DNA sequence: CTAGGGTTAG
């Protein structure tokens, strides 16, 4: 609008835009016309160069200026962070430091994002401390960027404490916190934040819904997913490709494939993620043919598939026994799309041959296609096939190879003992067991969840803490009698030491998934809605068989989502086994609400302890640095020590963190004085 | 003569 007020030089820069070639021409013009030292022009030039991806050139332009100012380097820092050039952003930030130029909060948001992109926790902490030293400790933009930083580095407790410290939280801050939990596998906590947001009457935007739907997908929280969908529709939100994909993904991963497809068809815009989510949804539920059909359509009229698409396609083929289709897909991956297969693709292929009983082909594939020495993932896939098709000699060989590769990994010992158990060599099973005990190797603990009437019920093997324990066990006993009468035979030997499974002899009938399913059936007899259970590990072979029978004798659809996929049990069959896949009908109607926590949540493990420690340390750093005066030149030692000694446990951490800031950013403090002062002001120990 | 921040899908 005011282009007539701008100099021709400035206009020529704008005209060049974020393109390296034209920018260099404009640069030449600046030099020739004598504007080569104009800071505003050089700033615009260098910033555009960063936007063009030419960070080294921008760096050269900026540093060759005789008197660069703060505006120049902070603009460059921002531009680089924005273009996801984190290393360049940090380099420009260091220029500001070494030139002793002033900082603004804008610089910190940029450089925090750069650290987040790099997952650089140590540098990120130093930048955090530095921002505190300069008095930006309560800037809501800086705090939000730090929430993202600590989330990306897996430090959720620190992220949360910073989030809590934000006064007047913006929707961006809420979104960052929801997505932070979700990305770290703590979907339940993300959902809690979404609910807190409602209570706080903060206004959500489309990113809020995208993040929340992802959390729902991860947690299997179908009811909340539907609620979010209703809001999206009733508020007439713009259906961006992000939002659309999030909806497809939510429905697909919650097991409502038809609804996922409805959205998929309805969307105006579909990209590779939308297509991949839908294909993966089909594959996960055993609809291999649908997956392939959609993949073919994608090849004809969709965006080019990528690595993730091929993982979905190959896994769908493996589970549906579509060997020819899988082979074709694998072949076109590199030839047509130039994608180099990764270990996941190799594993899916091996798994595919293995499941189809083509063990020789699997071995041949490993030999012909996998470059170098195959990794443990590939051997594990081979082993799965050996187990399935009872090839004990090869199985033992492979398991021993795996143990040699990673002696401390408990799951390989479990696999070996499974093979021995299946082949009836019980004395070998005992030997492996003893080895595990001697080396203190423990299996992961499994649990299953079912949500009824808005309350989530968690079961571990042999769980006795539920208030209806007696009824549940009684119900399960009766159920086992009935399925036994129908022909069920416990897979005793294999279950005795099942893969990644709850163990303890004689307790196989009380595996967590059996308890959860029994509870669901008991509490809803007479109903026709499917039973939905989520398990954190893979379902065990015996439970798989038992639940097939349960679906028949109870005439109920039972859906179990395990670590890898969905199992739709109906009429004595499961959707995951292509050999008995006759009915491919998906669920419909209102299912029992299921909730699930991916990692810690209510489930007692060591995570919460770790959280406690983080909170203390993080709070101490913040409190301490807040006591430091704004220009960073002097510290009131008394104030610092008062605060820090109240957080006595984390004294060392505080000193270390601030020291690190000083080293990197050449701030001159007298560390010995500070340390001594802090120590002498320690509170008396409790007697 | 110079901008303007932090958050999204498999």
UniProtKB/TrEMBL annotation:
Q: Which Gene3D superfamilies does the entry link to?
A: Phosphatidylinositol (PI) phosphodiesterase, Tetratricopeptide repeat domain
Q: Which InterPro entries match?
A: DYW_dom, E_motif, GP_PDE_dom, PLC-like_Pdiesterase_TIM-brl, PPR_At4g14850-like_plant, PPR_rpt, TPR-like_helical_dom_sf
Name the UniProt key words of this record, in alphabetical order: Glycerol metabolism, Repeat, Transit peptide
Is Repeat given among the entry's keywords? yes
Give the transmembrane region(s).
Answer: none
Q: Which SUPFAM superfamilies match?
A: PLC-like phosphodiesterases, TPR-like
The catalysed reaction is: a sn-glycero-3-phosphodiester + H2O = an alcohol + sn-glycerol 3-phosphate + H(+)
Query: What is the name listed in the Swiss-Prot or TrEMBL entry for this protein?
Result: glycerophosphodiester phosphodiesterase
- According to its UniProt entry, this protein's organism is Lolium multiflorum (Italian ryegrass)
């Amino acid at each position: 609008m005011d282009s007539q007020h701008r100099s021709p030089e400035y206009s020529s820069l704008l005209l060049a835009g974020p393109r390296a070639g034209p920018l260099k021409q404009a640069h030449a013009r600046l030099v020739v016309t004598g504007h080569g030292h104009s800071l505003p022009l050089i700033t615009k030039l260098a910033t555009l160069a960063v936007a063009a991806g030419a960070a080294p050139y921008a760096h050269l332009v900026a540093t060759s200026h005789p008197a660069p100012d703060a505006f120049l380097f902070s603009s460059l820092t921002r531009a680089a962070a924005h273009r996801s050039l984190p290393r360049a952003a940090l380099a420009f930030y260091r220029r500001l430091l070494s030139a002793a130029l002033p900082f603004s909060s804008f610089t910190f948001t940029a450089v925090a994002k750069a650290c987040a992109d790099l997952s650089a926790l140590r540098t990120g902490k130093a930048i955090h401390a530095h921002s505190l030293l300069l008095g930006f400790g309560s800037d809501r933009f800086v705090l939000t960027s730090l929430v993202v930083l600590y989330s990306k580095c897996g430090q959720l407790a620190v992220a949360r404490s910073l989030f809590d410290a934000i006064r007047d939280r913006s929707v961006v801050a809420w979104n960052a916190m929801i997505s932070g939990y979700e990305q770290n596998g703590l979907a339940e906590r993300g959902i809690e934040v979404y609910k807190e947001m409602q209570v706080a009457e903060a206004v959500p935007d489309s990113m809020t819904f995208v993040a929340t739907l992802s959390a729902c997908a991860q947690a299997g929280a179908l009811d909340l997913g539907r609620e979010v969908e209703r809001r999206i529709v009733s508020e007439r939100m713009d259906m961006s490709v992000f939002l659309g994909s999030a909806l497809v993904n939510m429905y697909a991963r919650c097991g409502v494939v038809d609804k996922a497809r409805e959205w998929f068809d309805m969307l105006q815009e579909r990209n590779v993620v939308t297509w991949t989510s839908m294909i993966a949804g089909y594959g996960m539920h055993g609809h291999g043919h649908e997956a392939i059909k959609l993949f073919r359509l994608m090849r004809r009229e969709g965006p080019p598939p990528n690595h993730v698409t091929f993982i979905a396609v190959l896994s769908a083929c493996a589970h549906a026994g579509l060997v020819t289709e899988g082979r074709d897909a694998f072949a076109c991956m590199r030839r047509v799309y130039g994608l180099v297969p990764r270990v996941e693709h190799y594993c899916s292929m091996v798994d595919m041959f293995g499941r189809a009983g083509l063990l020789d082909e699997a071995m041949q594939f490993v030999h012909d296609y996998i470059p170098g020495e195959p990794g443990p993932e590939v051997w594990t896939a081979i082993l799965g096939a050996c187990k399935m098709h009872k090839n004990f000699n090869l199985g033992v060989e492979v398991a021993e190879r795996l143990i040699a590769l990673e002696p401390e990994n408990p799951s390989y010992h479990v696999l070996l003992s499974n093979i021995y158990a299946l082949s009836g060599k019980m004395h070998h099973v005992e030997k492996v067991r003893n080895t595990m005990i001697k080396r203190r190797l423990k299996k992961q603990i499994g649990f299953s969840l079912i949500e009824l009437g808005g309350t989530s019920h968690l079961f571990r093997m042999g769980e006795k803490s539920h208030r209806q324990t007696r009824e549940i066990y009684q119900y399960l006993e009766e159920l086992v009698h009935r399925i036994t009468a129908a022909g069920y035979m416990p897979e005793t030997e294999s279950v005795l030491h099942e893969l990644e499974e709850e163990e303890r002899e004689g307790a196989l009938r009380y595996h967590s998934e059996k308890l959860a399913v029994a509870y669901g059936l008991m509490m809803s007899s007479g109903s026709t809605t499917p039973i939905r259970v989520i398990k954190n590990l893979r379902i065990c072979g015996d439970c798989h068989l038992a639940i097939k029978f349960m679906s028949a004798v109870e005439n109920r659809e039972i859906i179990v989502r395990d670590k890898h996929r969905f199992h739709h049990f109906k009429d004595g069959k499961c959707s995951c086994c292509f050999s008995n896949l006759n009915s491919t009908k998906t669920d419909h109607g209102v299912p029992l609400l299921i909730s699930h926590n991916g990692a810690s949540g209510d489930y007692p493990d060591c995570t919460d302890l770790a959280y406690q420690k983080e909170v203390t340390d993080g709070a101490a750093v913040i409190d301490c640095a807040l006591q430091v005066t704004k220009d960073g030149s002097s510290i009131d030692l008394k104030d610092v020590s008062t605060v820090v000694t109240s957080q006595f446990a984390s004294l060392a951490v505080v000193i270390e963190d601030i020291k690190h800031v000083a080293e990197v950013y050449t701030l001159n403090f007298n560390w010995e004085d500070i340390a001594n002062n802090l120590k002498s002001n320690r509170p008396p120990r409790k007697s």
